[in-house]
Each structure stands twice: as structure tokens, then as C-alpha cells.
Amino acid sequence: MTDTTKTLCPYCGVGCGLEVSPPAQLGKAINRDGQGDPIWKVKGDRNHPSSQGMVCVKGATIAEAIDKNRLRYPMLRDSLDEPFRRVSWDEAYECIVHRIQSVCATQGADAVCMYGSGQMQTEDYYVAQKLLKGCLGTNNFDSNSRLCMSSAVAGYVQSLGADGPPCCYEDLDLTDCAFIIGSNAAECHPIVFNRLQKHHKKNHNVVKMIVVDPRRTPTAEVADLHLAIHPGTDIDLLNGIAHLLLRWGYFESEFVSECTANFPAFAEVIPHYPPEVVAKRCGIAVEDLETAARYWGTSKRVLSLWSMGVNQSTEGTAKVRSIINLHLMTGQIGKPGCGPFSLTGQPNAMGGREVGGLCNLLPGYRHVQNAQDRAEVEQFWGVPAGRISPHWGRTAWEMITGLETGDVGLLWIVATNPAVSLPDIKRTQAALLRSPFTVYQDAYYPTETAAYAHLLLPAAQWGEKTGTMTNSERVVTLCKAFRPPVGEAKPDWEIVAEVGRRLGFADKFPFTNSAEVFAEYVQLTRDRSCDMTGISHAKLAQSPLQWPCPDTWANNNSKRLYTDLRFATPDGRARFSAYHSKGLAEPPNSEYPFVLTNGRLYGHWHTQTRTGRIEKIQQMHPQPFIEIHPRDAAKLEIQEHDLVEVRSRRGKAQFPAKVTKAISPGTLFVPMHWGALWGDETEANALTHPECDPDSHQPELKACAVQLSLVVQK
Ligand code: SF4
Q1: 366: region left, alpha or beta (phi > 0 left; psi from -120 to 50 alpha)
Q2: What are the structural domains of the chain?
Q3: Under DSSP, is residue 251 helix (H, G, I), strand (E, B) or coil?
């Protein structure tokens, strides 16, 4: 294990290829405990098709996090007020098996929940689906992709017939107009944005960039047009652009009549969105709205990019579908340089979707409510007909409400930190306190969530296990191990498979390595839109591959979906949707006059489990802050660096003020990375609410109504 190893950055969904090589002094011996190992060398992999050698600060510093704050051994305690004691893996397995059997016997299998993560590799996900959905017979597997991408999933499925972004990164080099909405890609997906920016700069006279965001983010800074709309007015804006496109005749009638359905319903909605009305609702100038529509209408190739600002909303699915409407009416899909392209948050959020890693999905983009889908998976897994429930399992938030009502008897959390990342965090934490038994399987300790666990299971992490991940452009990369796990840590799939064997399902988990897990899984993708039967660990060891990649294809040529303009619906036609704007679930009022939004910073990742331990990143972003527009600050006599308090109907938090015109008046912004481990009262989610989109069940993390007051002047 001393040669350079090719792998993938384990942070965001851009999925940059990395090359890792050991420091010179490591060649002689690898300290299995991981203590004091020198830092591994990381650089971008020039041959990776998605990133071509580029990395951002997170990828460049990832090796510094490998050995810090690791959970090394299984640990157990009987109650949360006791200290943990180290136990053997055998004792840990027997404990969890006994607990699952006991909960199944007394409350039924639907009282068992697993909450996973887009940090899991596809093999980890697959084994978990088989155990929960196929063996135990509960669909209670959900992941933090519910907080991240589930609105994009629902939007793609409803409009195009199947999940999966139809575009690829090459489209960033080919587009004439990038329409970026609800995404601060410059900070959150920097390598994708760098590529787009390079194209934009080089062709500035012809390539336009529109950014829709209530903040003047670094992404908006370089745009030709920044539409700083009021939070919650996205559908007004999108329907308003559609109105102008129709009025001005930017409409592909042949494409619409031959390749789509439901246009009449959409056409009935659009007259209600004339530019004067839309501009007023959105808080923008009519001229800017017209410029956006003109850019879109006159461009041959429009690429829309979006992320959490669209998805994390009670209207998330409707927003995604409204973006897709614009592509359908102008025929901007299935061709180079154009299409609706959601940017995934986590490194394997895409893989999780493909393998059925949400409580409404089954492997191969199947759905639990579809009888044929269930039957196919049951037959493949060799489990009795009817074993897979026809109902959605518990979503991420429903696991929390299930703890509150006593309907969840065991919660098994894998590779995520919900005690920071779920909405209404004080309510979430109170529910976790009531959990009869929580298993926390993670690479790191301490974390905020570990404080609520009864059993800690040490997981091998990036670099310590071999498996696959799929990035935002459907490229599957083999992430190879380059060192042994620390302490007694094991790959997630191995832990779950062993629990399955001990629960009496030995024949379902015969795997001796992750390549065998992957080989079984891809058979469930055969003839599906995400066909990966032509992909194996052995082939990926040569090069990453993009799906679809059936084993019948001689070459991997899957840059774009729907190039034949046949969509994945039963009749092959994409579906227009017809939505009226409903606005925010919690609009501001006289008592709570501000809208609080939140997001990521360039260097930090999610709840800082890794990045909080990296000195360079800590120096970049040492503490949270709140952005306040100068006009709002002046009214409340708040000055730069003053300590201010933000209160919502659910909780409060305090931050130093950053007075800036980057945020719109009436809107506030805080970064979302700080949890209880980093100090008191800086949790963004102490303020957020858990109202969810009715289709995707994604919470509206991006907006809540708050009060603002001065605490201490600097
Ligand atoms: Fe990693 Fe994303 Fe940065 Fe690429 S852009 S190096 S995948 S964090």
C-alpha cells in the first residue's frame, strides 16, 4: 500500500478525482492504530474525467482529517447518563441483534429505523437496503439526502419519468447561458463553478450567466445578471420568465407537441404571471426580469444549475418542475450545453438514489409503491413475496416524530450528524434523548450525535475501505483503500452484513468484499434507466465510468440522457407541470419580521466533523456570523461585529454581526456548520422549522421567520 492510489474526494457531489501517496517515512510501517501517522499527500487526479486534476481547499486538505478524533472501538452504555465502556465487536453485534429482535417482537419491524448518509459508499447503501427492506420488511431507511436532494429526485421523476440529471460537466463548456438558481456554486461546488467561469470569461460577449439568489454571493458577483429575489418567490420568477418567453415567441412548438404532455395546464397558469406583477412580488426590476427572459430566449443552449436553495423548500418539487418547464418549452434538453442540472450536495448522494437509499425507493430507481418494482426486487433477493412494504417508510423527520410518539424503538444512525443537521434542532435533540436505543456508526468521535447514542460502532472511512461513489454527472468512481482502518473500525457494509447474518439472514449476505456487493447490486439496474451492468470494480480500477453503462454496450458513451428526445415516462413524453406560487411556509410578520436563510462556506463541510479539525480551514472560517443589510442594521443600531440574537418560534442563537449589502434588506444569512460542540447558541437549526414539501418530504431548511436584536456592542 505504498504506491499512489486513485480515489475520489469524499466531500461534495462534484466528485473530484484524487491521487493519494504516502509520505516518505510511511513506507516502512503503517501504524494500525493510526495515531501519529504523518500526513498523506493528496493531489488532483489529472486523468479523472470530471475534475481533470482540479481540487478545492477541502479536497486538498482531506488527508489531515483522517486520524483526528476517530472512533476506534465499539463502545456501549446502558443509559445516556452513563460513560461508555469499550466492548468487543462480538458483544456489540449481539447487543444490536438482541435489540432489533426485541423491538421487532414487541413493536414490529416498522419500529426499527436506519438513518444513513450521502457519505456512505454505494456498497454500504446496498447492504443496508437489503437488510431493512428485504430482510426485516420495513422501508425505514432514509438518508440525509432527504435534506439535500429529494426535491430534485421528485421533480425529475414527475417531469422526465426517472431520476438522474440529464446533463454532464462538458455542458459547462458548451452552454450559451447558465441559469443558476438557489446555488452558491462558487463556494459549494467550486470546481464545477471554476469550469463554468472559465468558459464564461473566455466567451464573455456571447455566454451569459444569470444568478438567482437573495444574497450577492461570490457566484452572483461574477454573473451578468443577479436577480436578488425575495425568499420564496422562485415560482413567481420562473413562471414570469415563462410568460415572457411565450409572449415573445421563444417557444419550440414542434418539440412541445411531439415530445411533451400537459402543456395546456401549464399554459393556463402562465397568464397569471405578467412581468409587472412578478417583478413586484420578487422585489426585482421589470427590466431585469425581461433581461433574464431575453438571455434565455435568445440562447441556443441554456443550462440551469440548482442546489439547496431550490430543493430545501416546501415548494421544492414544484420549483424543480418549474425550472424543467422552461427547458421543455424552449426545447433545451437532450442536447450539448443545455438542460436542467441539479448539483448534488454529498459525494455519493447520487449513488444513494440509484441504490434506493431513501424510504420510498428500491435499487435501480425503483419505487416501493410500485407492485412490479417490489416483486422484481423480492424475486432477485430471494425473499418471500410481500416482504417489501408497499408504503413509504419513515422520512428523516418522521424518524424524529416517531421517537417523540414512542413508535420508533431503535434508531441506527450511519455516517451523519443529525444532532446538528436536522431542522428544529432543540426538538430533534429532545427526541433523540427519548430514543429507547440509538446505534451510532461513524468514523468520528466526539460528535454532537454521539452524545445521544447507546452503542457506538467505529466505521472505516475514506481511504480505509474500497467502494464506489457516483457524482453529479453520473460518473461512478472506485474509491480505493490506501491504508488499513484505524483501531477496530470496519467498513459500513461489513458491519450491516454481519448484523444481517446474525439476525438469521446469512444466505442474503455472502459477501467477502465490496466488489461482490457491487456485482450483485448492478444486476438490479439491468434495463433500468441507470443501467450499470457494464460496470465492475475491476473496470473502474482502469477508469471511472458514467451510467447508463449496460454490459451490452461496447463503449461507455453516456454523457447526456434523452438525446433521442424520448423520456422515461410510459409514453416517452416529458410532462409540463402547472404550479402557482404559494410562498414560504413561515412568512415574516410584524412579530418575526426577518427571513433567515443559511448556507455553506467555501472551506467548511456540513457539521465540521472533518473540516473543523483542519487548521487551514479553521483559519479561513474561525467562527459563524450573521449577514445583515446596512439598512436593517441601522434601524436596530447594530454595527459590524456586535453580538446579536436571532429568535424564531422554536429557539434562539447568537452571532457576531456582519453588516453587508451582500444580503437583501429584510433577509438574514447564517452559515450552517456550527453545532453544540463548537460553543453555545450558534446552531442555525435552533431556528429552522421542519415543514416539508408534500411530494419530496424535504424540509424547508432554507427559510424561517425570525426576530433580530442587539445583545452586546463590540
Ligand atoms: Fe472535493 Fe467538491 Fe472540492 Fe471537488 S469541489 S475537491 S469534490 S469538495
Answers
A1: beta
A2: 75-79+93-148+347-546 (3.40.50.740), 150-342 (3.40.228.10), 594-712 (2.40.40.20)
A3: coil
Is 180 in contact with 592 (CB distance < 8 Å)?
no
The interface pTM score, or ipTM, of the predicted complex is: 0.99
String of b and e for 291-330 (b: at least 16 CB within 10 Å)? bbbbbbbebebbbbbbbbbbbbbbbbbbbbbbbbbbbbbb
- Give dist(CA 214, CA 283) in Å, integer: 10
State in Å: Cα 32 to ligand 1 middle.
28
Contact between 80 and 72 (Cβ < 8 Å):
no
Spatial distance between the Cα atoms of 126 and 492, rounded to a whole number of angstroms: 11
Element (H, E) at 708: strand 704-712
Cis omega (within 30 of 0) on the bond before 446?
yes
Give the β-pairing of 112-116 and 141-143.
parallel
Instruction: Give CA–CA dist 653/668, Å, rounded.
Output: 13
Q: Could you read off the pLDDT of 2-37 as tens digits, one per residue?
A: 589 999 999 999 999 999 998 865 544 444 444 555
Residues 6+ apart with CB under 8 A from 505: 131, 135
Which numbered atom of ligand 1 lies nearest the CA of 347?
7
Q: Are 558 and 666 in contact (CB under 8 A)?
A: no
- 115 - beta bridge partners? 142, 413
Instruction: Indicate the DSSP class of residue 64.
Output: G
Q: Which of 191, 470, 608 to mutate to test the pocket of ligand 1 (most atoms within 8 A of CB)?
A: 191
Cα(345) to centroid(ligand 1), Å: 10
Pocket of ligand 1 (CB under 6 A): 9, 11-12, 14-16, 55-56, 58-59, 190-191
DSSP per residue over 423-436, as a string? SSHHHHHHHHHT-S
For 106, left (φ over 0), alpha (ψ -120 to 50), or beta? alpha
Query: Candidates 43, 50, 58: which one to mutate for ligand 1, based on the most atoms within 8 Å of Cβ?
Result: 58
Q: How far is residue 357 CA from its own chain's centroid? A: 12
Residues in the chain: 714
Closest Cα partner for 306 from 206, 202, 165, 158? 165
* Residue located nearest, by CA, to atom 2 of ligand 1: 12
pLDDT at 554: 76
- Going by the DSSP 8-state scheme, the letter that residue 40 receives in this structure is P
Written as one string, the DSSP assignment of 350-404 is HHHHHTT-STTEETTTEETT-HHHHHHHHHHHT--TT-S-SS----HHHHHHHHH
Residue-wise pLDDT for 526-569, tens only, equals: 999 999 999 999 999 999 999 999 999 877 678 999 999 999 99
Rounded CA separation 165/186 (Å) = 20
